[in-house]
Amino acid sequence: MLVLLAGIFVVHIATVIMLFVSTIANVWMVGSSNFGTISTGLWLLCNKTCSQLPVSSQDEASLKTVQAFMILSIIFSVVALVLFIIQLFTLEKGKRFYMTGAVMLVCWMCILIAVSIYTARFTGAVAYSTNPHHGYCFILAWICFCFSFIIGILYLVLRKK
């Protein structure tokens, strides 16, 4: 049981780190141009230097929504981690980590909403570039989506023995 708890803890910390990286780094979409590689993230457009991400007025609300839900997912993931540590030392034997699992599933839902909106609105759209494709931050966000779901379900069914 101790090995299972330690494994879940390590995967949870890895998920938090990957959420931070995928939200902060500007490599959600990558494309080529005459001047080199262009990458866009949730915040900036980067070529050799980074500048404000040019977004049309109709896509601005979608981008703000993706930004907000990715930040919320980080917050909920960190809260779930803190709850897990608190419940680990305060719960009696045989109790389950219901609160931790519920908060982690809320994190999962936030990631789902953010990445789904980004996929629907911004896939294939890199300004001033040709041959756009997804960057590592986009892929990390989907990996975090999978990990947070698995961790949330494990917390719900996990008993402290």
TrEMBL record:
What residues form the membrane-spanning segments?
7-29, 68-90, 97-118, 138-158
Q: Which UniProt keywords apply?
A: Glycoprotein, Membrane, Transmembrane, Transmembrane helix
The main location class comes to membrane
Question: What species is this protein from?
Answer: Cinclus mexicanus (American dipper)
Positions in coiled-coil regions: none
Tell me the InterPro entries matching this sequence. PMP-22/EMP/MP20-like, PMP22/EMP/MP20/Claudin, PMP22_EMP_MP20
Q: Which PROSITE patterns match?
A: PMP22_1, PMP22_2
Q: What is this protein called?
A: Epithelial membrane protein 1
